[in-house]
Each structure stands twice: as structure tokens, then as C-alpha cells.
Amino acid sequence: MEHNLLHSFHIPVMGTGYSADTPVRVAPFGITSVISIVDDVLLEKMRACYCRTWQLPYEEIPPTDPDARANRITAYLNMVLDIVGMRMAAIRALPFFEENDKQTYFELLPGESPLKAEYRRLLQMPPGPGRDSAGAALTRKMKPGSIDVNIMVKVDSLHCDRDGKPMPEEYSDAKAALRGYAMSRLSDSAIVFSAGLNKGLFTYMTRFRDFYRDETGRASKKIILKVSDFRSAHIQGQFLAKKGLEVHEYRIESGLNCGGHAFATNGYLLPSLMQEFKENREKLGAAFQEMARRYYQEQGWVYPETEQPHRPLITVQGGIGTSGEAERLRKDFDMDLTGWATPFMLVPEATCVDDTTRTLLQKAGEADLYLSGVSPFGIPFNNVRNGGSEQHTQELVESGRPGFACTKRLLVSSTEFSETPLCLASRAYQKKKLAQIDKLDLSETERAERRREITDRTCLCEHLGNSSLIALEAADEKTSPQLVCPGPNIAWFSRNYTLREMVDHIYG
């Protein structure tokens, strides 16, 4: 399967809301970015906002819809695709030789881009039919960046229907999200699977033909695995290949330097991990391709051959801060692309962040950035001090009512106190856990520390999306605490930047 890349970087997923509309903002300039589809309620609210702004028809998908989660995700992605299409058409229609978005499109391209070389040749041509023809041909080659999505495969709770009966397995969180993406009109797009192997989810993917090659050898919807080491990549890639599913890209993420959850890699530094991929990348291509070919034969399908053998992309993201770092990752370790997330939190043209949170990030120094215990998953979580979520959580503790009402139930995991799983940030769980701690024979210091570990956990489901809703004027900042989870490299970015400035910075 071929790889059509305009840029040598992409914008990874950021929280649940911060990059949820990033494709609308940057895809018309050829830049690829990733939407989190974990929170369908948030996406539905954002769809309502965007439909009003763009005067598109909107019909609410209510909780009573039997497949609400999947249908909301499908509707949101289709809307994003439509808006990107409208913006792309408007940019294509602009004239050359003027300061406008069409000029920006080409000037943002990396120096080595063949498309940029054509653009520069056009600028040197004298007026006349030849230049007009060359401009029309160049315009036809303009295309948007890929609209990709992300699923955390472990966010896969199974819910009950309105009568309290467990719903069929395909209505679990991850499978419903996958179905929402699969049923969307997105093409030349990719789904990023993060946080490990979910065999049930990967098997469910076989129901959707878009993940397989068509008669031209292309998959309409591609597969990206976010991985922390080669072993994980090989195990997951092999599992998928046996089902005929080929991985388009293995995306290595720096466990400690990325934003959000910090997945430590047991002392393995990123360079050694990348070197292992560099030395063994062929094991992720030809061998798995043969497995996929056998699956096609078993299904009675034709496996379309292409001129080039399947060679998945190997990319890296997390903590990159300078063009020199990015260049070294590409040249010394053969990385095909680099991912830049946190710096784009300070680019209003690229991300959906409220003003208060952007100001907090602008002022954040090294001492303000820390690994916190706020995640209900019990995994260290990158955080910045004095955010709205931290203040609100502390106010609840001081009022004697720690914990949160658990409405979305995306992160429920504990069956310590009930058969029905509870979220560790929920009031129901924390009330029981704190009562249990109070009965233990502990010193006051130990008891206070144990209590703090419990009450530090906050509602990621709501707080990670609030900033974007505030920015879209769909939520009131006074009642919507914001949680932001930047990587440590935000300390080196101290103001808002234009999209042009940030892309120029990435390319040196």
C-alpha cells in the first residue's frame, strides 16, 4: 500500500477535545492530524456547534438511540469531512500570485517537497497560457491532510440497556467507536490504536471491508499501531496479519515525554528502541504480508499486488522540540515521520483550547510541569500546576465531598466494592475507599497520604473536554473545570504562535 505524504510531521491526538477539530483547522493545508473518538458525548456537542457555524443541518442523536455512540461518531466524522472538503475547495479556487491561503498551502510544505518545487517553478514562469496550464495542473494536485482517529483499546466497557440488561458485545465502548469510524465516509484515513492489544476489538475489525485492500491494492481505512517497543509491535502486527489486516504505520511514542499518560518503558531509552525498529523493520513487512495474502485466499478474495512490497511506516512522537531533534530522528534512525503535539497547544489555528488554559501553558515553566496521580487508571499523568481541574478537585475535598458523579462511565475499572465496575475518580468509589482507609491501623501521616492518593484522582472524562467546549462557547468556564496534560517540552514555548511559525520551526 502506497504512502502519499505531503509533510514529514503529523499532529497526534491530544486529550479528548484539544485536537477533536484540528483536521477542520489544518487538513485544508495538507497537514495530517488525529481526533480522539473516545468521548461521543463531547463530539456530539462539538458537532452541534460546528453545524451552527457552518449552517449545516443538525439533528441531535439522543442517548435513547440504540447505537448512539457509533452514530454520533459517524455523524461527527462525516461533518468534519464535509467542512474540510468545503475549505479545500475554497482554497483551490483562490488565484496564484497573491497573499492568500493557497499561497500558505504551498509555502508550508517542506523544502524537499516535489509539490513545492513545482510551485516555485510556477512562480518563475512568465504570464501566458503555459503558466495558466501549469497552475491548473498544480491546483489539481492539492489534497487535504489525512483525517485520522484514535481509540484507546482498553477503554472498552460493556454497558447495560435501559432495562438493566447487558448489551451485546459489539456495543462495548471500543467496538462502538470502531464501528462509528468504519461506517463514516472517511477514506485515505487511518485509525490509531493505542494502549495495547485488544484481541476482541481487532477481531471485530474483520467485519469491515474498508480495512482491507481494494482492487487497486489500497485500503480505504488504514491501521496505525501506537507502540512502546518492538516486541509489542511484532505481537500486534502478527495478530492482525493472520486476519488479513496490514499495519500501515507503527507509531513509537516516548513513554515519558509525551503528554497525557506516561507509560514508562522499564529503563529502555527511546534511541535504543528506535534502533531496534531500524534493524528489524523488514520483519514487520514481508512476513506479515504473506500471512495477509493467505487470509485473502481463505476468504476467496483476490489479493491485489502492487509494484512495491508492503513496507509499513515507522514514526516517532513525544517530546520533540526542535527541528534538529526531528532531523536526527529521521536521518539517524530512519524514522519516516515525527509527531508534534504539545507545542500545537499554543497554536490557536490548530487546536481548540480556551484562553485561560492557553495562558496557563504559556506561563508554565519546568517546575510547574509534573507527573501527577490524577488519572483513574492509576498511571502517572502529565499535568500542569494550578489548572482549573486541580483547583476544583481540591475544593471538593475541602468541602468533605470528594469524588465525581460518573455519568459517561468511560473509565470504570474497579470491582473492589461492587459487581458493577466503578471509576476510581467517582464519588461512589472514593466514599467507600476512604471509609476503608479510616478503619486501618495507620499513623495520621500514613492515613493522610493514603487519602490523598485516592482524592487526587479526577474526572478525565469531563475535565479533558471542557476547555474545547469553553473555546466553542458551548460551556461556562465557571462550571467547567479544565484539565490539560501537556508534555514537558511545553516549558520551552512561551506564547501563542501562528501555524506558519510552528511549521517553520519544525522544518528549521
Would you write up a description of this structure?
This protein has 508 residues and is α/β, with parallel strands linked by helices. Helix content is 40%, strand content 9%. The protein has 18 helices and 10 strands. Strands 1-8-7-6-5-4-3-2 form an 8-stranded parallel β-sheet. Strands 9-10 form a two-stranded antiparallel ribbon. It is globular and about 85 Å long. The protein starts with 8 loop residues before the first strand and ends with a helix.
Keywords for this entry:
508 residues, alpha/beta, two-stranded antiparallel ribbon, 18 helices
Summary of the model, kept short:
The protein is built from 18 helices and ten strands. It is α/β, with parallel strands linked by helices. An eight-stranded parallel sheet has the order 1-8-7-6-5-4-3-2. A two-stranded antiparallel sheet has the order 9-10.
Strand content: 5-15%
Provide the low-confidence segments as ranges: none
What global shape is seen? globular
Helix/strand class: alpha/beta
Please report the total strand number as a whole number.
10
- Ends distance: 30 Å
Mean pLDDT: 92
Protein topology:
Blueprint: E1 9-10, H1 22-26, E2 33-36, H2 40-53, H3 68-92, H4 101-107, H5 114-124, H6 129-140, E3 147-152, H7 173-182, E4 189-194, H8 199-204, E5 221-227, H9 230-241, E6 247-253, H10 270-280, H11 286-299, E7 313-317, H12 323-333, E8 337-339, H13 355-363, E9 369-372, E10 381-384, H14 388-398, H15 427-438, H16 444-455, H17 460-471, H18 499-506
Parallel strand pairs: 1-8, 2-3, 3-4, 4-5, 5-6, 6-7, 7-8
Antiparallel strand pairs: 9-10
